[in-house]
UniProtKB/TrEMBL annotation:
CDD domains hit by this protein: Cyt_b561_CYB561D2_like
Cofactor: heme b
Organism: Friedmanniomyces endolithicus
Alphabetized InterPro entries for the sequence: CYB561D1/2 (IPR045150), Cyt_b561/ferric_Rdtase_TM (IPR006593)
Name of the protein this chain belongs to: Cytochrome b561 domain-containing protein
Length: 240
């Protein structure tokens, strides 16, 4: 049975993305980098780059100080995290999944380094100026997001590269669906944290980023990424 016939099978609807038909968000025989834009990936990319442009434009429109590195690094981290999701979502064959996983891990590592650097900057700034820690909605959401990112990184790396920690490959693979859902939830937290930054004194007094603009960019990201989700990859979490 060829690929076209397989796509016509009723049971293959589980392989379809939430929006679109079978194959609309599947890598098929295309090169890995095509995954960045396949299907609604282009919508997610538009939102991701608009969000980054808003943050970076606001920062570079003002005098640069040490604190400026915080929004620059964290927005870069969000951008790389989104790329890490997009590159892996459409993979289909074993070879594609392996290539996608390694690239996914590499992009996440870059994002994690940027996020940690952003955290170091804000904590140093708070300590240096005697500022309060984790009081604003932005700070609280940021802390929760960092915890989620750390947990996702730990589980993602160990379940793929050291499955023996979970009692074998099969047990480790059984956790993949939770890792995927955790990744999507973490992305939502990241976007909420970015939007909440508009309510901080530094933004209202200096950056002046508009909440509506960041919300629009975030909605594009959610729609672009969410539409490519395949229920079959979420197991019983998708009602199977």
């Amino acid at each position: 049975m060829d690929a076209e016939q397989q796509q016509q099978q009723p049971g293959n609807s589980e392989q379809s993305p939430l929006l679109g038909g079978p194959g609309d968000a599947t890598q098929q025989d295309k090169p890995l980098y095509y995954n960045f834009i396949i299907g609604t990936g282009v919508v997610a990319q538009a939102g991701a780059w608009i969000l980054a442009a808003i943050v970076w434009g606001a920062v570079f429109s003002n005098d640069l100080i040490l604190f400026s590195a915080h929004p620059l690094l964290n927005s870069a981290a969000v951008l790389f995290f989104i790329q890490a999701i997009l590159i892996l979502q459409p993979t289909h064959t074993a070879k594609q999944k392996k290539q996608g996983t390694y690239t996914h891990a590499a992009l996440n590592n870059v994002a994690l380094l940027a996020a940690v650097a952003g955290l170091v900057v804000i904590e140093y700034n708070k300590i240096d100026h005697g500022g309060a820690h984790f009081e604003s909605p932005h700070a609280i959401l940021g802390l929760i997001t960092y915890i989620m990112v750390a947990g996702q990184a730990l589980v993602g790396i160990t379940q793929y590269f050291t499955p023996g920690l979970y009692g074998g490959v099969d047990n480790a693979k059984a956790l993949y669906k939770y890792h995927r859902v955790g990744g999507y939830l973490t992305l939502l937290l990241m976007l909420a944290t970015v939007c909440a930054a508009t309510q901080t004194p530094f933004n209202t007094n200096v950056l002046q980023m508009q909440l509506w603009a960041l919300v629009v960019a975030s909605v594009l990201i959610v729609l672009g990424v969410g539409a490519r989700i395949k229920p079959s990859k979420l197991g019983w979490l998708a009602g199977k």
